[in-house]
Amino acid sequence: MSKALTAPAVPDIEFEEEFVTGLKNIFEEKIVFNKLLGLKISSLRADRVMARIDMRNELIGHYAHNRIHGGVISAGLDAMGGLAVMAAIGARHMDETPLQRLHRFAKLGTIDLRVDYLRPGIGDHFELRAEVLRLGSRVASTRMEFLGADGKLFSTAAAAYIVS
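== Thioesterase family protein ==
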C-alpha cells in the first residue's frame, strides 16, 4: 500500500504460532473457495496481510488467454479483506487464548465490496494485500490490492465487513 494511503499505525503484535497456524488452516483449507482459488498466506500481521495466487487454467477468463478472470480477482480481494479483519480482531483480543480468538470469526461477513479493475491480470502468479482502515464493534472497513509478480497494480478494492 502506498504511504499516502496507509492506515493508522497498529501496535506491532506478535501472534502465537497456534493462532497463525489455526488462521492459515481456516483461511487456506476450511474456506473451500479460498482453497479452490489457491490462496496462500505469505504474511500475517495485525496491520497488514498478504497472500499469493498462482495462475492455473481454472482461473483464466473464458475469452481471455492467460488473463486471470475478474471474478477470481474480486473473490481474492474479498477474501483478503476478511483475512485482514480476522488478524485485526485477533490483535484486539490478545488477552484471550488463540483458540478463543479463532472462534470469533464465525459471524464475519461481507456487507459491501467495491473493486476497481485497473489493467488486465496477466502473469504466472499474483500478490494480494489488505489492511483494516477501521475496526469497530460491528463493522470493519478495509482496503485491498491485487498486484502482478513485478509489483504492478492490477486492481484495488474497498470493503465493509460485519464483525458482530
